[in-house]
Protein backbone atom coordinates (compact mmCIF):
# COMPACT_ATOMS: atom_id res chain seq x y z
CA UNK A 1 0.00 0.00 0.00
CA UNK A 2 1.22 3.44 -0.80
CA UNK A 3 -0.20 6.21 1.31
CA UNK A 4 0.95 9.74 1.92
CA UNK A 5 2.97 9.72 5.14
CA UNK A 6 2.41 12.25 7.85
CA UNK A 7 4.06 12.55 11.19
CA UNK A 8 1.78 11.43 14.01
CA UNK A 9 2.50 11.15 17.69
CA UNK A 10 1.21 8.38 19.96
CA UNK A 11 2.14 7.54 23.49
CA UNK A 12 3.20 3.94 24.00
CA UNK A 13 4.33 2.29 27.19
CA UNK A 14 8.04 1.63 27.51
CA UNK A 15 7.37 -2.12 27.46
CA UNK A 16 5.45 -1.79 24.19
CA UNK A 17 8.16 0.40 22.64
CA UNK A 18 10.81 -2.13 23.66
CA UNK A 19 8.87 -5.05 22.18
CA UNK A 20 8.18 -3.08 19.00
CA UNK A 21 11.86 -2.21 18.63
CA UNK A 22 12.95 -5.83 19.19
CA UNK A 23 10.48 -7.16 16.62
CA UNK A 24 11.40 -4.46 14.11
CA UNK A 25 15.06 -5.38 14.61
CA UNK A 26 14.34 -9.06 13.99
CA UNK A 27 12.52 -8.15 10.78
CA UNK A 28 15.11 -5.61 9.68
CA UNK A 29 12.62 -2.76 9.37
CA UNK A 30 11.90 0.41 11.27
CA UNK A 31 9.59 0.43 14.27
CA UNK A 32 7.41 2.89 12.36
CA UNK A 33 7.05 0.50 9.40
CA UNK A 34 6.20 -2.37 11.74
CA UNK A 35 3.67 -0.28 13.64
CA UNK A 36 2.09 0.79 10.34
CA UNK A 37 1.73 -2.88 9.33
CA UNK A 38 0.29 -3.84 12.72
CA UNK A 39 -2.29 -1.07 12.55
CA UNK A 40 -3.27 -1.88 8.96
CA UNK A 41 -3.60 -5.61 9.69
CA UNK A 42 -5.38 -4.95 12.98
CA UNK A 43 -8.00 -2.78 11.31
CA UNK A 44 -8.47 -5.52 8.70
CA UNK A 45 -9.24 -8.02 11.47
CA UNK A 46 -11.92 -5.67 12.81
CA UNK A 47 -13.38 -4.84 9.39
CA UNK A 48 -13.28 -8.47 8.18
CA UNK A 49 -13.87 -10.89 11.08
CA UNK A 50 -12.12 -14.19 10.44
CA UNK A 51 -9.43 -12.65 8.24
CA UNK A 52 -5.85 -12.68 9.50
CA UNK A 53 -2.53 -11.86 7.88
CA UNK A 54 0.07 -14.60 7.58
CA UNK A 55 3.44 -15.21 6.08
CA UNK A 56 6.91 -13.83 6.56
CA UNK A 57 7.45 -10.09 6.95
CA UNK A 58 8.36 -9.64 3.28
CA UNK A 59 5.35 -11.59 1.99
CA UNK A 60 2.28 -10.93 4.14
CA UNK A 61 -1.06 -12.10 2.81
CA UNK A 62 -4.66 -12.22 3.95
CA UNK A 63 -6.05 -15.61 4.94
CA UNK A 64 -8.88 -17.17 6.85
CA UNK A 65 -7.89 -17.84 10.45
CA UNK A 66 -6.73 -21.45 10.38
CA UNK A 67 -7.59 -21.73 6.70
CA UNK A 68 -6.46 -20.96 3.18
CA UNK A 69 -5.31 -17.64 1.81
CA UNK A 70 -8.00 -15.28 0.54
CA UNK A 71 -6.53 -15.36 -2.97
CA UNK A 72 -6.92 -19.16 -3.04
CA UNK A 73 -10.59 -18.89 -2.13
CA UNK A 74 -11.24 -16.21 -4.73
CA UNK A 75 -9.33 -18.17 -7.39
CA UNK A 76 -11.44 -21.27 -6.74
CA UNK A 77 -14.68 -19.28 -6.71
CA UNK A 78 -13.73 -17.92 -10.15
CA UNK A 79 -13.42 -21.49 -11.44
CA UNK A 80 -16.86 -22.51 -10.24
CA UNK A 81 -20.03 -21.75 -12.15
CA UNK A 82 -23.27 -20.12 -11.10
CA UNK A 83 -24.31 -17.08 -9.15
CA UNK A 84 -22.28 -15.99 -6.14
CA UNK A 85 -24.27 -17.92 -3.52
CA UNK A 86 -24.23 -21.10 -5.61
CA UNK A 87 -20.45 -20.85 -5.92
CA UNK A 88 -20.13 -20.28 -2.18
CA UNK A 89 -22.26 -23.36 -1.45
CA UNK A 90 -20.19 -25.45 -3.88
CA UNK A 91 -16.92 -24.31 -2.34
CA UNK A 92 -18.23 -24.92 1.17
CA UNK A 93 -19.23 -28.47 0.22
CA UNK A 94 -15.90 -29.04 -1.50
CA UNK A 95 -13.69 -27.72 1.30
CA UNK A 96 -15.66 -27.93 4.53
CA UNK A 97 -15.25 -24.17 4.98
CA UNK A 98 -18.25 -22.45 6.50
CA UNK A 99 -20.07 -20.22 3.96
CA UNK A 100 -19.71 -17.30 6.40
CA UNK A 101 -15.92 -17.61 6.16
CA UNK A 102 -16.01 -17.81 2.38
CA UNK A 103 -18.13 -14.66 2.33
CA UNK A 104 -15.62 -12.93 4.62
CA UNK A 105 -12.80 -13.85 2.25
CA UNK A 106 -14.83 -12.63 -0.72
CA UNK A 107 -15.61 -9.34 1.05
CA UNK A 108 -11.92 -8.81 1.83
CA UNK A 109 -11.02 -9.65 -1.76
CA UNK A 110 -13.59 -7.21 -3.12
CA UNK A 111 -12.08 -4.45 -0.97
CA UNK A 112 -8.52 -5.36 -2.02
CA UNK A 113 -8.84 -6.54 -5.63
CA UNK A 114 -5.36 -5.52 -6.81
CA UNK A 115 -3.57 -7.55 -4.13
CA UNK A 116 -5.79 -10.59 -4.64
CA UNK A 117 -5.57 -10.46 -8.45
CA UNK A 118 -1.78 -10.11 -8.28
CA UNK A 119 -1.52 -13.25 -6.13
CA UNK A 120 -3.81 -15.22 -8.45
CA UNK A 121 -1.84 -14.11 -11.51
CA UNK A 122 1.49 -14.97 -9.87
CA UNK A 123 0.18 -18.44 -9.03
CA UNK A 124 -1.09 -18.96 -12.59
CA UNK A 125 2.31 -17.90 -13.95
CA UNK A 126 4.08 -20.33 -11.61
CA UNK A 127 1.81 -23.15 -12.79
CA UNK A 128 2.48 -22.35 -16.47
CA UNK A 129 6.24 -22.17 -15.80
CA UNK A 130 6.19 -25.53 -14.00
CA UNK A 131 4.21 -27.12 -16.83
CA UNK A 132 6.66 -25.75 -19.42
CA UNK A 133 9.63 -27.07 -17.41
CA UNK A 134 7.99 -30.50 -17.16
CA UNK A 135 7.37 -30.56 -20.91
CA UNK A 136 10.95 -29.48 -21.60
CA UNK A 137 12.28 -32.36 -19.47
CA UNK A 138 9.97 -34.83 -21.26
CA UNK A 139 11.15 -33.56 -24.66
CA UNK A 140 14.75 -33.86 -23.61
CA UNK A 141 14.29 -37.48 -22.56
CA UNK A 142 12.24 -38.50 -25.63
Describe this structure in words.
The chain is mainly alpha-helical and 142 residues long. Helices cover 67% and strands 6% of the residues. It contains 6 helices and 2 strands, in the order ααββαααα. It has a two-stranded antiparallel sheet with strand order 1-2. Helix 3 packs across helix 6. The chain is extended and about 65 Å long. The model has no long low-confidence stretch (mean pLDDT 94).
Break the fold down into its secondary structure elements and pairings.
Layout: H1 14-27, H2 31-47, E1 51-54, E2 61-64, H3 70-79, H4 84-95, H5 99-111, H6 113-141
Question: Could you write a compact summary of the structure shown?
Answer:
This protein is mainly α.
Q: Mean pLDDT, as a whole number?
A: 94
Secondary structure tally: strands: 2
Structural class: mainly alpha
Radius of gyration, in Å, reads: 20 Å
Order of strands across the biggest sheet?
1-2
Order of helices and strands: HHEEHHHH
**Biggest sheet character:** 2 strands, antiparallel
Helix % is 55-70%
How far the N terminus sits from the C terminus, by CA atoms, comes to 48 Å
Number of helices: 6
> What is the percentage of strand-forming residues?
5-15%
Low-confidence runs of at least 5 consecutive residues: none
Shape: extended
Amino acid sequence: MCYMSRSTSYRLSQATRDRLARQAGREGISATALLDRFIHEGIDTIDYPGIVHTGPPHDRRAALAGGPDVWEIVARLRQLEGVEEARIRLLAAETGLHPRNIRAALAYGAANPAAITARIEANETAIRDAQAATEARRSLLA
